[in-house]
Fold this protein.
Amino acid sequence: MKRFITALCLCVALVASTSAQTKEGYKFTDGKVVKGTSVKNQFRSGTCWCFSALSFLENEIIRAGGEEMDLSEMWIVRNIYFEKAVKYVRLHGHLNMAVGGAFHDVTKGIEKYGIVPQEVYEGLNYGTDKPVFGEIDAVLKAYVEAVVQNKNKKLTTAWKDGLNAILDAYFGKMPEKFTYKGKEYTPHSFAESLPIKMSDYVFVTSYTHHPFYSQYIVEVPDNWMWETAYNVPLNELMQIVDNALENNYSLGWAADVSEKGFHRTKAIGIIPEDNIESMSGTEAERWGRLSDQERQRELYSFDKPVKEKKITQEMRQEAFDNYENTDDHGMVIEGTATDQEGNPFFKVKNSWDVRPPYDGYYYFSRPYVEYKTMEIMVNKNAIPKAIRKKMGL
């Protein structure tokens, strides 16, 4: 009896051990990681484009030898809202008047309006300590709609003043001068004091419906400014990413996070291989016996590393044309990593606050970045010389 109990205990222990091994999840080891500023929190606002672009520029300030600082996201958001509203009215309402935007909104915004530290302009003039945009978005959209649909047959001279009054009410009046660390600045002189230039930053994408090495307006609704990006082949896009990180440059990353392979709470993004034709031997045989529900559960359990798809230029294009790749979210690629099986990943800073399991950072597989990248923002000096020459930079 004692031998039976002992054997039973050993079996239970072995099963428990095996279960723990198969459900351990992903384990990441960081590789090269660029020094960056803290994780921020966009909270209940669709301003990831601004949080990510400014976080990237804060990293660039450090890389260029400047001090670590926290720049004001709402300074940019407030001014870009004004620009977007003016263009919306000019186009008789035929523009995406929403809170979404793109990385170049930030660089263009700094060039036109300057920039200020976070402590100078928090932009929270409506009773909360974090961004909450439900009311702001609705009020601004209603206001510009009323201007467009007015019955005067011409615009009044007051509508822009009214727009600024709304923006000042929610974000606060913009200071013409301010003191930072004992020195007086204007928003423009502060921007000029930074060790970076907005002209150094370019935007790069990779699609086949425009010629490679040309610039074109990326056709996504949030590109309301109609700015252009450089177009390069996928392999060269990834060479730019690799070269930047290797040389201590981070990258702004505009990506699609609508895939089932993106898990918000586990902070991971993968593109599992689900095509039985790419499998062989016992793997294909086992996969063929599973039901669709069992396959989905296995692919997206995140209990252990899985085989991922090999991404091609054609797959990217098809996903873009079919609305499967959309401009969902902006983040910052700050480093490389590997999982426990040696598969390559990128370490990415998000703007959803410091949260588990990686203190606000996320890990995205290389196939995910290849497949789901809409656009990168990068210092042109981080681009390999041979590619830069093809781009005409």
